[in-house]
Amino acid sequence: MLNSFIFVVLPYAALALVIFVTPYRYFSDRLTWSAYSTQFLERKTLLWGINPWHYGILPVLAAHFLGVIAPGPMKALLGNQNRLLVFESIGLALGLFALFGCLLLLLRRVNTPILKRVTFASDWALLYLLAAQTLSGVYVATYMRWGSQWYLHTAVPYLWSLLTFNPQLEYVTDFPLVFKLHAAGAFLIVALLPFTKLVHLLYVPFDFLKDPPILYRWRSKGSE
Ligand code: HEM
Fold first, then answer.
1. Residue 201 and which of 55, 158, 194, 223 are 20 to 30 A apart at CA?
2. Nearest to 105 by CA among 163, 53, 158, 176
3. Is 105 exposed, middle or buried (0-12, 13-18, 19+ CB in 10 A)?
4. Which domain holds residue 96?
5. Is 201 a residue whose pLDDT tops 90?
6. Residue 23's domain is classified under what CATH number?
7. Residue 166 located in a structural domain
8. Is the distance from the beta carbon of residue 167 to the nearest atom of ligand 1 less than 6 Å?
9. How far apart are CA 169 and CA 154, in angstroms?
């Protein structure tokens, strides 16, 4: 029952929400198609949180995707013991870097009263979920060693079976609960994507990274 919920209901519900709600939000509420900037409210902790978070999580996610789209080359790459050790170590370092950034971003919102006023329930849900997701990922990488290898032989065929609408749960049902929670967390994050600021992920293709800095002008006496 739990397995069917996590590995069939959740992923398809998440997919349906992304496919139907995302375009609706784009056309009905175009101006919110971004992450609201809070940089002008607090910038010091933001800098120390947002950089480790993005530079840590993006390569880790890219590795997850590479496993799905190119399992053959990935198996060949990680088939050598030394390379496996190097890539696993880099992965763990990046995961810890992302976790550090995410926790800092969470603490920043908790400890800055002015930020609390512009933090909605959806922002809290997303931040806690991302922190839990990163933590469970780092846990799996640490205590269920050589995940980058067994992922290719278990999670990847399962994910392909989902994409071809023929879910084969036998690849994943015998895993410990923490792995199942990691998969459930991923599907929940995808489900939340069209309702939260995470929608900026689809802001193709990361153009905002080369946007010029925004200039804020304060309207107050003496500055007019
Ligand atoms: C929102 C989506 C996801 C995020 C943000 C995420 C995040 C992470 C992070 C931060 C790590 C730790 C990396 C490391 O320290 O080496 C990790 C590891 C892992 N994740 Fe995910 N993950 C996601 C989706 C998934 C999915 C859908 C699966 C499989 C069904 C999965 C399976 C794994 C496995 C097996 C590892 C261990 C890799 C290793 O041992 O090197 N993840 N994930």
1. 158
2. 53
3. buried
4. 2-203
5. no
6. 1.20.950.20
7. yes
8. no
9. 10
- Give 223's pLDDT tier (boundaries 50, 70, 90): very low
Residue linked to tokens 């392909």: 160
For 20, the token pair is 């139907």
Answer yes or no: is 48 within a domain: yes
CA distances from 163 to 7, 91, 92, 157 (A): 12, 26, 28, 10
Nearest CA to ligand 1 atom 13: 95
For the cut 60, the answer to whether the pLDDT of residue 155 exceeds it is yes
Task: Give the Cα separation of 91 and 167 in Å (integer).
Answer: 28
137 lines ligand 1 (CB under 6 A): yes
The rounded distance, in Å, linking the Cα atoms of 183 and 154 is 12
**Does the beta carbon of 196 sit less than 6 angstroms from any atom of ligand 1?**
no
| pTM of the predicted structure, to 2 decimals | 0.89
Asked if the structure places residue 221 within a domain, the reply is: no
* C-beta atoms surrounding 144 within 10 Å: 15
Q: How many separate domains does the chain show?
A: 1
Per-residue pLDDT reduced to its tens digit, 23-49: 888 888 777 766 677 877 888 889 899
